[in-house]
Amino acid sequence: MALDERFKGVGVALVTPFDEHHNIDYDGLQKLIEFVSEGGVNYLVVQGTTGETPTTSPDEKKALLEFTKQHNTKGLPIIYGCGGNNTRAVLQGLIDTDFSGVDAILSVCPFYNKPSQAGIIAHFTAIADTSPVPVIIYNVPGRTVVNMKPETILELAQHRNIIGVKDASSSLEQAMEIAWKAPKDFLLLSGDDNLVTPMISVGWHGVISVIANAFPREFTDLTWHALEGRFAEAAALQFSFLDFDRLLYAESNPVGIKKCLEIKNVCSSEVRLPLVKATDNLGEELKAAMIREGFLG
């Protein structure tokens, strides 16, 4: 089986815009889809963590997916977030979802339960056996508490319906081991925006990005410079985002990136509780950094 080239480069983990009453702002979402698509991203990720999935209802998730499919004017590939820590509920969600127009799912490592590596393998095997579209597994131990070890990821890579991994472990050692031992057709996607260049340098294929919501052109340029071997150009852009990336997470994700989108007049910075909007101080720091790095005219 060949590597699925549709998911090389930059996928953007779309935020979910809200209005002042914390209802979904579909006008803002349409503007965001158009903004990132014109910015050159390679595919869209609907209802990943950055989309505030813990606070969107099952009906809202389906509505967000349908809206994105309907307003995907550039016909970009779509990945839909389908994960959780209740395996039976995830499987039922897969059965109940209309996957027409969906190219793959992104499924997060179970959180809170703290499963063993064997439990993780059984969980994702059940999902991959049920999913009508290919599965990309997602390792983000900073949120789930559990790290999918390289040997676990490599075992799951043998499943015919698991086509890749998004890894946000922040471990270059882990990234190197996976790249070294993974099948050649297994997609390797960074979940850490600030490690894209070094991860690509050892064989990774791209990123599912938070930053690309507000800076799609710059982050797509960065990623493709690296993929095409222009590492000096990639590094220069990577360094310009380094301090900025830390600011984005100072008050949790997607608080920071939504503030950047508000500054750029794409959508509101509203978030749903238990998250709260960016403080004035963070907003000022983000705007200053955007100006300093040339991300805001």
From TrEMBL:
Keyword Cytoplasm: yes
E.C. number(s) listed in UniProt: 4.3.3.7
Site residues, Part of a proton relay during catalysis: 49, 112
Catalyzed reaction equations: L-aspartate 4-semialdehyde + pyruvate = (2S,4S)-4-hydroxy-2,3,4,5-tetrahydrodipicolinate + H2O + H(+)
Residue sites binding pyruvate per the record: 50, 208
UniProt keyword terms in alphabetical order: Amino-acid biosynthesis, Cytoplasm, Diaminopimelate biosynthesis, Lyase, Lysine biosynthesis, Schiff base
Keyword Nucleotide-binding: no
InterPro entries membership: Aldolase_TIM, DapA, DapA-like, Schiff_base-form_aldolases_AS
Pfam families cross-referenced by the UniProt entry: DHDPS
Enzyme class, first EC level, given as a word: lyase
A Gene Ontology molecular function term of the record: 4-hydroxy-tetrahydrodipicolinate synthase activity
Active site residues of this protein: 138 (proton donor/acceptor), 166 (schiff-base intermediate with substrate)
UniProt-listed CDD domains: DHDPS (cd00950)
SMART domains linked to this entry: DHDPS
Known pathway: Amino-acid biosynthesis; L-lysine biosynthesis via DAP pathway; (S)-tetrahydrodipicolinate from L-aspartate: step 3/4
Database matches in PANTHER family: 4-HYDROXY-2-OXOGLUTARATE ALDOLASE, MITOCHONDRIAL, DIHYDRODIPICOLINATE SYNTHASE
Family annotation (HAMAP family): DapA
Family, as annotated: Belongs to the DapA family.
Assembly information from the UniProt record: Homotetramer; dimer of dimers.
Name of protein: 4-hydroxy-tetrahydrodipicolinate synthase
Organism: Rhabdobacter roseus
